Amino acid sequence: MKEDARKKPFVSLRGVHKRFGDLLVLRGVDLQVAQGEVVVLIGRSGSGKSTLLNCVALLEQIEAGTIEVDGAVVGAGPADETALAPKTRRREVAAEIGMVFQSFNLFPHLTVLQNITLAPRRVRGVSSRNAEILALELLDRVGLREKANEYPVKLSGGQQQRVAIARALAMNPKVMLFDEVTSALDPELVGEVLKVMRQLAEEGMTMLVVTHEMRFAREVADRVIFMDQGVIVEDSAPSRIFTNPSTDEAARFLRVLMDAEAVE
After folding, report:
1. For residue 46, what are the contacts with CB-CB under 8 A and spacing of at least 6?
2. CA–CA separation, 70 and 242 (whole Å)
3. Which of 76, 121, 204, 219 could hold 36 in an S-S bridge, CB 3.0 to 4.6 Å?
4. Strand 97-100 to 175-179 pairing
């Protein structure tokens, strides 16, 4: 990532609160991500990581604060609604956000090619021919061109997840969100998905990644953020957080993960 990209955040959360019923899941989160930056979110289950991604992806309405993406305020609590960008601009920005989930969410009745071409045709108005050309290029990129006419049930978990990444990339996103995309995979399939994510990082894609893959975080992330009970407890470079975390909470969490990684 270029250093001057840090001057203007591409994704910015300010004072974001999110609750589900009586449970306050995000408690005043402030986070800025520069264009081309790779930020990895770690923390215990229930710490708010996935909810944060869902809020950035505009899948959840926040109770307070603002979310800005690509210069437009796309999410706001009731007190800040006047800051929201016009609805047409918010729709444009929403189409710039690609998200890949833990579950592959492929349409089982559609082939791989059809899964990838569906959104570009229906949302962006791309012709069937051009959408197909793009889909095949993306399948080449993730190493699955030969699977274009297969149905998801015929693919391994790792292959399905790579198709899900290709499907997200077909919308030409400016930022990619990854929510525990390897946690449902058998260990031998994890590497093929992480390889695609590494390539995206090397190409300069802005990325927010929730993962327990500490090796990936150490090698690829520009920053690693540790969340606990709905707040950001630590925000550091990988070289710092993995060798000298500044909080006891982060130290304990990382010790458990790295011990497990050593056993593997």
Report:
1. none
2. 31
3. 204
4. parallel
In the prediction, which pLDDT does 8 show? Answer: 78
From CA 261, how far away is CA 264, in angstroms rounded? 5
**Can you read off the two tokens belonging to residue 199?**
């390539």
Task: Report which of 245, 156, 168 is spatially closest to residue 208, judged by C-alpha positions.
Answer: 168
pTM: 0.92
**pLDDT, position 263:** 47
Burial of 38 (0-12, 13-18, 19+ CB in 10 A): buried
Rg of the chain on CA atoms, in Å: 18
Side by side, the strands of the sheet bearing 206-210 are: 97-100, 175-179, 206-210, 38-43, 223-228, 231-236
**Whether the Cβ atoms of residue 139 and residue 166 lie closer than 8 Å to each other:** yes
Residue 264 has pLDDT above 90, yes or no: no
| 121 Cβ neighbours under 8 A, 6+ residues apart | 127, 128, 131
